[in-house]
Amino acid sequence: MTVTYPVIEGGVLQERSPIVGTPDDASQAAHVLRRVVRQVEDMVGHVAQASGTLGAMRGVSLATLRTRLDGRVVPAARAFTHSVAAGAQAFGTYSSKIEGIHRAARAVVATVESDLHLIIAASRRLEAACAGLEVNSSCVPDAWHEPPSVCPPASSVGAMRGGSELDDPAAAMQRAARRAARAQAETDWVGAAQVWVGALERISAEQRMWRALVEDRRAAEYALVNALDHTDLGELIRFSGGAV
Hints:
- By secondary structure, the chain is mainly alpha-helical.
- The chain has one domain.
- It has helices at residues 23-55, 60-133, 169-229, 232-239.
- The longest helix has 74 residues, at 60-133.
């Protein structure tokens, strides 16, 4: 029976897919935070300008106001700007990493798909070779992950030899035809089996790559959370009920 095409994600590649969401979401978050940074920096500039204007005026209340602007508002705004800028950088880095992980994961899926098609084609070639080998097609594995033997199976029909060709030329020609058919079938079997085994080796390598990409995805998520956790944004997210 010809090998059936299996499910790839969640099947051949057993771990959860590292392709979740889109890097555009993180990129958009970074864009928004950078815009906030620019707006706060503009505000700090206006505050500094106002403080300079107040410095030219006399009055206790004005001096007090200037002291508060210079000693509280401006430092707090600059600290907030630094925190938001760090958050924007964290989201930008995360977006870049996720984009690379998604690209690599899609390449893994494409390679596995290609090799699975090779295995299915090889199983059909093996089944076709069974006739020339004079064996039952049950010799061909019916699961993609069960490689066939590279050595062709022995015929169960019996040895291809008999009486003298002079005694029975027709029988001799028949035996010669069978030997030629078997020789060709053996060549076809070996070639198809090697294709199958080679495809399995590549799929095994892609499975390892897939697991590595899943771990890279977890590491990228942890790095983002950890980076945000060290900023005021992390405090704000926790205060709002989010998970950081």
